[in-house]
């Protein structure tokens, strides 16, 4: 059973370290990538020195094998993007069929969040090791929380909070997914710094694109918001908070990071979120909940525990 918010151990009995993560599905296996925060949180809170990006594998989404740190921190060069003193957040991996390589995008920053870049790494196998390529300021703008989305036709997009989170920028990746094409849009245009949106997660259902974001309140939870569009480039129309049930106004005391479509199923998704603990970030918990689109609007109901049979229940509203 999924038990949102409870400690989740891997097959070695260790708490899973894959925060701000995302999932890649490839040939019957799921690969969960995320921030390894298995170190001391600094006394002022809100920071663990960079350890690296973890990977876990599973065939049922419940039992996870630790595949190790597939992109480790770089210890011997304080200027490196992956130095322990930097920020490496929200890694996401997609597979490029043309180049047969796994491409990871992540938010790279300095500890004060002013460097604000997108980093990219590549590997021949899902479990790495990943070779760090570079970081960029995509579309000539700052880049903080990010995600990637791969469309059915192989086109892939980097979706990121830009201009101090005042906009969400959606940019198409190059055919090899390693660079960013000069094809992009800025959406939402919030009036003031930090009053915008972050933590983007995109998915597609019945020809429509959905983008779930959070507000900007640091590690504290706030309400999620969903927007819908007919193209990743918009225009995006806000349709409201997809969460229902206790603490729905606070995304169940968590912040979204990814939406996983269940392979081979219609209208069956898992919403992945992080319940951050800024005083002990290593003990931040995972909140995974079922997501279904009902009458064109995504719905994420709270469950203390649940499993994938939830998607088999007859539901007259199912699309
Ligand atoms: C919210 C972001 O979504 C997280 O990834 C992290 O950057 C925190 N802010 C830091 O306060």
Describe this structure as you would to a colleague:
- The protein is mainly β.
- It has one domain (19-312): Tachylectin-2, Chain A (5 Propeller).
- It is 0% helix and 45% strand.
- It contains no helices and 21 strands.
- The chain has strands spanning 19-26, 29-36, 52-58, 65-72, 87-96, 101-109, 117-123, 131-136, 146-150, 156-162, 167-173, 180-187, 198-205, 208-214, 225-229, 237-240, 243-244, 255-261, 269-275, 285-294, 297-301.
- It starts with 18 loop residues before the first strand and ends in an 18-residue tail after the last strand.
- (2R,3S,4R,5S)-2-(hydroxymethyl)piperidine-3,4,5-triol (DGJ) binds next to strand 5 and strand 13.
List keywords for this structure.
319 residues, mainly beta, hydrolase, 21 strands, glycosidase, Tachylectin-2, Chain A, four-stranded antiparallel beta sheet, 0% helix, binds (2R,3S,4R,5S)-2-(hydroxymethyl)piperidine-3,4,5-triol
Give a quick summary of the entry.
With 319 residues, the protein is mainly β.
